[in-house]
Amino acid sequence: MQLFTYFATKHIAFLFLLEQSPPISKPEPRKRKKSPRSFPSTPVSEQNQRTPLGSASYHMAPLGADTVATAWAALRARAVAPALRAAVWASLAMSSMLLVEAACMSLISLVAVRLLRRRPERRYKWEPMAGAAAGCDVEDPPASTDGREFPRVLVQIPMYNEKEVYKLSIGAACALTWPPDRIIIQVLDDSTDPIIKELVELECQDWASKKIDIKYEVRNNRKGYKAGALKKGMEHVYAQQCDFIAIFDADFQPESDFLLKTTPFLVHNPEIALVQARWEFVNYDVCLMTRIQKMSLDYHFKVEQESGSFMHAFFGFNGTAGVWRVSAINQSGGWKDRTTVEDMDLAVRAGLKGWKFLYVGDIRVKSELPSTFKAYRHQQHRWTCGAANLFRKMGWEIATNKGVSIWKKYHLLYSFFFVRRIIAPILTFLLYCVVIPLSAMVPEVTIPVWGLVYIPTAITIMNAIRNPRSLHLMPFWILFENVMSMHRMRAALTGLLETAHANDWVVTEKVGDLVNDDHNVPLLEPLKPTERAERIYIPELSLALYLLICASYDFVFGSQTYYMYIYLQAFAFVVLGFGFVGTKTPCS
């Protein structure tokens, strides 16, 4: 590549000089001097203009700095600037789309839900279960005079080598307040470690000895990953006899009254298929990376889920901390493993069948955030790639569906998928990591101030409004999200084009009870060779070098002031590239 650039520059310089030189004429004969050869005192560029093309002195004169600069200016004006100008306007168009979408969601969630107090209890019928009293525990369940008052509930806990958290999730599920003859706990263990499988089975036997109806189910293979485990779990006879299914990942710990708060919405409103609760994080204060994750996920629940639930009675199922109606799952075709977002896949298919979803933000379930940069990268790849891949597979099905209104089709295709799952990850990387730094080296291209400052500021303010306690972390959030945009853009394109890694599934590592231990990354502690290699991320460091070059060029030669932002962004890429973020790997 370097050789190609070198010869291309030489060739362009030659063509440029060819155009500028006068017609070829026969040089006048001159006498040779016997004095030693000396370099001319005139500049090389001026000498080349005076020397006729084809003379011996023309070929002997080296290309100077002025010639290379002139050639770069010609290449920049004819090839780079038009392409970059097109990228600028494409980025501005996508920024406007994202701004309008964010403004609409923020307005709906803030005005309709918060100011007008249009809470779920006012929009849907909710009554406490007959005989249920606050503070009841599993040892003293509320009495049921009629079996229909307390429907049968199946609690599914899928897990895979969850040594650190299996006790927490199983214990929380077994402590749910519900008549013991109307609830079944189902542990779906896909663990490949025989020691962990034995520990999980012993834990289930221990709870079974306490008269808890708990089932321990395993499979011979991991086909379909989580979707395959959930699908296999629903094939059992006792599962088919249940009315509702509550799903919790292995690191989720619901409160004992979770079913008493969520199930009445399903009992009294037969059109509702899903009740989704909000996530709460037990380790958000472990490091800066977990605090930033909390900001992003809080915005997701407070804005995206609330606005979708209020306006369209539709949103993406978060895969856990929710209660499904079994008949809605069966009518929608059950769990499918064609993407890595089986939860969103089921939600979209159920939405196309006319089912309604309800998000209840007042109900919170404790969970754990990935605390290592490696685990967070895998999680974001799975979420982003799976959503884009689902859009590829269901786009035409949504457009041709006759069971929903045009308005809902528009919401699904444009807002839910195209803007949030395709445009958002691509735009962030394209504009802030490619277009703006490159424009610092191309003075022929200017970015309007409204697209460079006003739109990003407006989007940041809308995020900050819903996270007032994290206002001081907004600069770090911006820089971190720009770094992660590189992985999200690559994941979105991978899913959209359905390349070889479109269905890669890596389980997010958990810490569990070790969350309060000292897992911070010590900057001065000597590392083992393997640890040092795992903490170095070449893509981040490569992009950091590119940003440093652009910023330095702008600082020395450019007329813009982009270098202040670009230097900060380059520093963020360097920090994450050397792994100085998050905690140590909690488990192998």
Which secondary structure elements does this structure contain, and how are they paired or packed?
Elements: H1 2-20, H2 44-50, H3 56-60, H4 65-115, H5 120-123, E1 153-159, H6 166-174, E2 183-189, H7 194-208, E3 214-218, H8 225-233, H9 237-240, E4 244-247, H10 258-268, E5 272-281, H11 288-311, E6 322-325, H12 326-331, H13 342-352, E7 356-367, H14 373-400, H15 406-439, H16 449-465, H17 474-497, H18 529-534, H19 538-556, H20 563-577
Parallel strand pairs: 1-2, 1-4, 2-3, 5-7
Antiparallel strand pairs: 4-6, 5-6
Helix pairs in contact: 1-4, 4-11, 4-15, 4-16, 6-7, 13-14, 14-15, 14-17, 15-17, 17-20, 19-20
Mean residue pLDDT: 84
Beta-strand level of the residues, as a percent range? 5-15%
Q: Mind telling me the C-alpha Rg?
A: 31 Å
How many individual helices?
20
Number of strands: 7
Helix content: 40-55%
Largest sheet: 7 strands, mixed
Series of H and E elements = HHHHHEHEHEHHEHEHEHHEHHHHHHH
Low-confidence stretches: 1-27, 29-61, 134-139, 518-527
Strand order of the largest sheet: 3-2-1-4-6-5-7
Q: State the assembly state of the protein chains.
A: single chain
Q: Per the principal axes of the C-alpha atoms, what is the gross shape?
A: globular
Distance between the termini: 39 Å
The assigned structural class equals alpha/beta
